[in-house]
Amino acid sequence: MSKKLFWNYEREIVGSVAYLLENNLVDGILFLDSFPCGPDSLMSIFLNQISNNLDGKLMAIVLAELDSDMGLITRVEAFVNSIRGVKAGVI
């Protein structure tokens, strides 16, 4: 990553995700975010770039007060099913 993040918390998250994906320590990462603006929105862009560059499985979900529980459950289930499909060699 060529850009330096000045926010300590966000830098830790981005670094941790990069480490986990680079070293194949996880099958996938589900990133839950409650703020669609500010440093978190920038961090989501970095996380997606890292995931794409490393062929990692990352799903970022922004939790908004207008989202339904069923919509969230459906997205998480689909992500987990895709991870399982990759591990089983189906996808």
Mind explaining what this structure looks like?
- The chain has 91 residues and is mainly alpha-helical.
- The protein has one domain: Alpha-D-Glucose-1,6-Bisphosphate, Chain A, domain 3, CATH 3.40.120.
- It has 3 helices and 2 strands, in the order αβαβα.
- It has a two-stranded parallel sheet with strand order 1-2.
- Helix 1 runs parallel beside helix 2 (39-53).
- The longest helix has 20 residues, at 69-88.
- The radius of gyration is 14 Å and the shape is flat.
- It starts with 7 loop residues before the first helix and ends with a helix.
- Beta-strand percentage range: 5-15%
Mean pLDDT: 86
Any idea of the CATH topology? Alpha-D-Glucose-1,6-Bisphosphate, Chain A, domain 3
Shape: flat
Helix content: 40-55%
Looking at the overall shape, the CATH architecture is: 3-Layer(aba) Sandwich
CA radius of gyration: 14 Å
Low-confidence runs (pLDDT<50, min 5 residues)? none
Tally of alpha and pi helices: 3
Class per helix and strand makeup = mainly alpha
The topology string of helices and strands comes to HEHEH
Sheet with most strands: strand arrangement: 1-2
Total discrete domains: 1
Strand tally:
2
Biggest pleated sheet = 2 strands, parallel
CATH class: Alpha Beta
| Ends distance | 29 Å
